[in-house]
Here is the input.
Amino acid sequence: MDKRSFLNYYKTILEKVSFDKKLLEKEYKKAKRLLEGPEAKDLDYWVNSNGLAHKIGTFSMNRKSERIN
Here is the structure.
């Protein structure tokens, strides 16, 4: 499975577990460990644009997320 497939997989997982803050944080951390570079930035952008960032207590970005094309 390539990294882009994992990105899409984790987007789906995060949507499905967004009802539970702790589970969302756990799955977000797993995704960040697996994804690298542009895919990790894409995930951060997606989390922000879907309103999930406020649910992730450990969510920290040193700079504003930008969409990676």
In short: Residues 33 and 40 are 9 Å apart (CA to CA).
